[in-house]
Amino acid sequence: AAPGRAPGGAPAPGGPSTRPTLVPREVGDGRTAVDEAQTMALLERFALAMPRRHLAHSADEAVRAAERVGRPCVLKLVEPLLPHRAKAGAVRVGVDGEEAVRAAWADLVREHGARGVLVAEQIDVDGGEELIAGVVADPVFGTRALLGSGGVDAEDADDARTLVPPYDARSVRHALDGLHVAARLRRIRPETGALAEELARIIGGLASLVEDTASPRLTEVECNPLLVRAGDTVVLDALAFVATDGDGDGSGGGDDGGADGDGANGGRGDAG
């Protein structure tokens, strides 16, 4: 393991926090969130598969970002206040070329008052399956995790399982076997043990972020969707919530909040 890291990419117990500075925003219902751009940056430490992406604050920056991530790309409004950005028309997919990037930027500014846009590599989702994975602070177990069907309709799918530590491959595999999408996952990844190992590493990483005592304290981190493909599992979108004055015990807000599931990169939620 690298210095300051435990095996699997999690920070070593007692090691110094290397977390970047966070700028959370109030999102209503007494909750405060960290947007996708910041949350994805937090996940960088775990060496997870993620699309190339850059934050842009102007049309010129968006054009340069698109050149770096490759074409076609995705432009997404960076706004934790807006749930389900794809459904709200705050995501543009298949953006190809400078003129298209500038037009997409102008649309997001005109329709949503965009102050920041995430320009991301567009990931091919064909043949994959979208999952949701999240971890919340828990006053009894320290943390607890959610694993289930993901995407824009994750909240309505009623297809999720709760896990408590330790988040090892065995417990993750048991949770996967109980999902309605289990058969589809087995067709994509016949070696379910390898998939369970990947997801256990992702969930373990999310748990370590929630366990980190750096300020502001995170109470919930969610990835939605996680795209399971034949060769890997890609984090397409993520969101985190932070403790407020009323969260003295660090307990999270539950399993109903979180990332849009709009697929930072042309996930099914973006297609229409």
Describe the structure.
- The chain is of the alpha+beta class and 272 residues long.
- The protein has two domains: 28-48 and 126-267, ATP-grasp fold, B domain (D-amino Acid Aminotransferase, Chain A, domain 1, 2-Layer Sandwich), CATH 3.30.470; 53-121, 2-Layer Sandwich (Dna Ligase, domain 1), CATH 3.30.1490.
- It contains seven helices and twelve strands.
- The chain has helices at residues 36-43, 59-69, 98-112, 154-157, 169-177, 182-188, 192-211, and strands spanning 25-28, 31-34, 53-56, 73-77, 91-95, 117-121, 129-138, 142-149, 160-163, 218-228, 233-235, 238-242.
- The strands form two sheets. Strands 1, 2, 7, 8, 9, 10, 11 and 12 form an eight-stranded antiparallel beta sheet that branches. A four-stranded antiparallel beta sheet has the order 3-6-4-5, with helices on one face.
- Strand 7 and strand 8 form a beta hairpin.
- It is globular, with a radius of gyration of 18 Å.
- Mean pLDDT is 85; it is low at 1-16, 248-257 and 266-272.
- InterPro entries: Acyl-CoA_Synth/Transferase, ATP_grasp_subdomain_1.
- One of its GO terms (molecular function) is ATP binding.
